[in-house]
Amino acid sequence: MRHRPDPPIDAVRMSELYALQHAIYRQHGCGSRHLRSIPVSETFAGVSVFTGIVELFELIEHPQARRCYAFGLDLGGGRFRYVTFLELPPVESAVKAVQVAMAEGSSPLF
């Protein structure tokens, strides 16, 4: 049996973006368009609680927000969760979206 090579990074990246768009649709009931990727590293009490990429999406016909921050969280034990936050106060940046997720208990460190 021949070993199949891993898909190109572009294909993996597109798959992740599609999964995040699907999460946005499920949670907020609207379509979205990817705008950019924002690297975020967040610590709490000297411990790294998040190092990753937060994706910024433009929302299509959402009644309250124009944009949404979305990212995946590895919860440990084989559990994974997609997190989405509308760009509405207090979430006005990628860093703030991560901080709110941590405050809500989305991280296994909290």
Q: Reading side by side through the largest sheet, how are the strands ordered?
A: 1-2-3-4
Apparent shape: globular
H/E element order:
HEEEEH
* Span of the ends, CA to CA: 45 Å
Number of helices: 2
As residue ranges, the low-confidence spans are none
Radius of gyration: 15 Å
Counting helices, strands and paired strands, the structural category is alpha+beta
Q: Give the number of domains.
A: 1
User: Mean pLDDT, as a whole number?
Assistant: 87
Major β-sheet profile? 4 strands, antiparallel
In terms of DSSP E residues, the strand content is: 35-45%
Number of strands: 4
**Percentage of residues in helical conformation:** 25-40%
How would you describe this structure in keywords?
single chain, 2 helices, alpha+beta, 110 residues, globular, 27% helix
Give a brief description.
With 110 residues, this protein is of the alpha+beta class. 27% of the residues lie in helices and 42% in strands.
What does the model show?
It is globular and about 40 Å long. Helices cover 27% and strands 42% of the residues. A hairpin with a 2-residue loop joins strand 3 and strand 4. Strands 1-2-3-4 form a four-stranded antiparallel β-sheet. The longest helix is centred in the N-terminal third of the chain and has 20 residues. The protein has 110 residues and is α+β, with helices and mostly antiparallel strands. The model has no long low-confidence stretch (mean pLDDT 87). It is built from two helices and four strands. It has one domain.
Topology:
Elements: H1 9-28, E1 31-44, E2 47-60, E3 67-76, E4 79-86, H2 94-103
Antiparallel strand pairs: 1-2, 2-3, 3-4
